[in-house]
User: What shape does this take?
Amino acid sequence: MKTFSPKLSDIDRQWYLVDAEDQVLGRLAAQIANRLRGKHKPEFAPHMDNGDFVVVINCEKIRVTGTKMHDKVYYKHSGWVGGLKEISLEDLLARKPEEVLRKAVRGMLPKNRLGRAMLKKLKIYAGAEHPHAAQAPKPLTFEK
Assistant: This one.
Protein backbone atom coordinates (compact mmCIF):
# COMPACT_ATOMS: atom_id res chain seq x y z
CA MET A 1 0.00 0.00 0.00
CA LYS A 2 1.37 3.38 -1.02
CA THR A 3 1.43 6.43 1.21
CA PHE A 4 -1.11 9.03 0.11
CA SER A 5 0.38 12.42 -0.67
CA PRO A 6 -2.09 15.18 -1.59
CA LYS A 7 -1.60 17.27 -4.71
CA LEU A 8 -2.31 20.96 -5.05
CA SER A 9 -5.47 20.11 -6.98
CA ASP A 10 -6.74 18.04 -4.01
CA ILE A 11 -6.66 20.97 -1.59
CA ASP A 12 -10.07 22.39 -0.69
CA ARG A 13 -9.70 25.61 1.28
CA GLN A 14 -12.66 26.82 3.33
CA TRP A 15 -13.24 30.18 5.02
CA TYR A 16 -14.10 30.22 8.73
CA LEU A 17 -15.24 33.06 10.98
CA VAL A 18 -14.14 33.01 14.62
CA ASP A 19 -15.53 35.36 17.27
CA ALA A 20 -12.75 35.96 19.81
CA GLU A 21 -14.95 37.64 22.40
CA ASP A 22 -14.27 36.18 25.88
CA GLN A 23 -11.95 33.49 24.45
CA VAL A 24 -8.65 32.67 26.19
CA LEU A 25 -5.71 33.87 24.08
CA GLY A 26 -3.48 30.77 24.05
CA ARG A 27 -6.26 28.23 23.65
CA LEU A 28 -7.81 30.17 20.77
CA ALA A 29 -4.41 30.60 19.10
CA ALA A 30 -3.76 26.85 19.25
CA GLN A 31 -7.09 26.06 17.58
CA ILE A 32 -6.52 28.69 14.89
CA ALA A 33 -2.99 27.41 14.20
CA ASN A 34 -4.37 23.88 13.68
CA ARG A 35 -6.92 25.23 11.17
CA LEU A 36 -4.26 27.21 9.32
CA ARG A 37 -1.98 24.17 9.06
CA GLY A 38 -4.80 21.83 8.02
CA LYS A 39 -4.21 19.33 10.82
CA HIS A 40 -7.97 18.84 11.18
CA LYS A 41 -8.18 17.36 7.67
CA PRO A 42 -7.63 13.66 6.93
CA GLU A 43 -5.37 14.55 4.00
CA PHE A 44 -2.93 16.54 6.18
CA ALA A 45 0.66 16.60 4.94
CA PRO A 46 3.32 18.40 7.00
CA HIS A 47 5.22 19.53 3.89
CA MET A 48 2.20 21.26 2.30
CA ASP A 49 0.01 24.22 3.08
CA ASN A 50 -3.45 22.68 2.91
CA GLY A 51 -5.08 24.66 5.70
CA ASP A 52 -8.09 26.94 5.64
CA PHE A 53 -8.58 30.70 5.80
CA VAL A 54 -9.55 32.03 9.23
CA VAL A 55 -11.19 35.41 9.86
CA VAL A 56 -11.13 36.53 13.49
CA ILE A 57 -13.37 39.32 14.76
CA ASN A 58 -13.64 41.05 18.16
CA CYS A 59 -10.01 40.33 19.05
CA GLU A 60 -9.96 43.43 21.27
CA LYS A 61 -12.25 41.53 23.69
CA ILE A 62 -9.92 38.56 24.11
CA ARG A 63 -8.98 37.52 27.65
CA VAL A 64 -6.05 35.88 29.40
CA THR A 65 -5.84 33.88 32.60
CA GLY A 66 -3.98 34.79 35.75
CA THR A 67 -1.98 38.02 35.89
CA LYS A 68 -0.69 37.84 32.32
CA MET A 69 -2.46 41.07 31.40
CA HIS A 70 0.04 43.03 33.53
CA ASP A 71 3.02 40.64 33.67
CA LYS A 72 3.41 39.40 30.07
CA VAL A 73 5.92 41.47 28.12
CA TYR A 74 6.75 41.39 24.40
CA TYR A 75 10.32 42.23 23.40
CA LYS A 76 11.92 43.34 20.14
CA HIS A 77 15.41 44.54 19.37
CA SER A 78 16.49 47.06 16.75
CA GLY A 79 19.96 45.57 16.40
CA TRP A 80 21.63 48.64 17.83
CA VAL A 81 23.20 49.03 21.26
CA GLY A 82 20.47 49.81 23.76
CA GLY A 83 17.80 49.04 21.17
CA LEU A 84 15.72 46.64 23.26
CA LYS A 85 12.07 47.68 23.21
CA GLU A 86 9.43 46.15 25.43
CA ILE A 87 5.67 46.50 25.64
CA SER A 88 3.26 44.84 28.04
CA LEU A 89 0.28 42.79 26.91
CA GLU A 90 -2.06 45.40 28.35
CA ASP A 91 -0.48 48.22 26.33
CA LEU A 92 -0.27 46.17 23.12
CA LEU A 93 -3.92 45.16 23.46
CA ALA A 94 -4.88 48.82 23.79
CA ARG A 95 -2.64 49.95 20.91
CA LYS A 96 -2.82 47.08 18.38
CA PRO A 97 -5.21 44.32 19.48
CA GLU A 98 -4.69 42.37 16.24
CA GLU A 99 -0.98 41.92 16.93
CA VAL A 100 -1.56 40.09 20.21
CA LEU A 101 -3.37 37.22 18.51
CA ARG A 102 -1.09 37.32 15.43
CA LYS A 103 2.02 36.89 17.62
CA ALA A 104 0.43 34.02 19.54
CA VAL A 105 -0.57 32.14 16.37
CA ARG A 106 2.76 32.86 14.67
CA GLY A 107 4.64 31.18 17.50
CA MET A 108 2.62 27.98 16.94
CA LEU A 109 3.29 27.71 13.19
CA PRO A 110 6.43 26.35 11.48
CA LYS A 111 9.35 28.77 11.40
CA ASN A 112 9.98 28.68 7.64
CA ARG A 113 8.44 29.91 4.38
CA LEU A 114 5.60 27.42 4.81
CA GLY A 115 4.66 28.97 8.16
CA ARG A 116 4.79 32.47 6.65
CA ALA A 117 2.43 31.36 3.89
CA MET A 118 0.04 29.90 6.48
CA LEU A 119 0.05 33.13 8.48
CA LYS A 120 -1.09 35.07 5.41
CA LYS A 121 -4.36 33.13 5.53
CA LEU A 122 -5.17 34.61 8.95
CA LYS A 123 -7.28 37.78 8.85
CA ILE A 124 -7.73 39.54 12.21
CA TYR A 125 -10.01 42.49 12.99
CA ALA A 126 -10.47 44.38 16.26
CA GLY A 127 -14.18 45.08 15.81
CA ALA A 128 -17.17 43.03 14.73
CA GLU A 129 -16.98 44.09 11.05
CA HIS A 130 -14.87 42.38 8.38
CA PRO A 131 -14.59 42.82 4.58
CA HIS A 132 -14.74 39.09 3.75
CA ALA A 133 -18.51 38.69 3.40
CA ALA A 134 -18.10 37.69 -0.27
CA GLN A 135 -16.21 34.53 0.78
CA ALA A 136 -19.17 33.51 2.99
CA PRO A 137 -17.10 32.32 5.97
CA LYS A 138 -18.70 29.59 8.06
CA PRO A 139 -18.96 30.32 11.79
CA LEU A 140 -16.52 28.29 13.85
CA THR A 141 -16.85 28.00 17.61
CA PHE A 142 -14.43 26.63 20.16
CA GLU A 143 -15.31 25.75 23.73
CA LYS A 144 -14.07 28.29 26.25
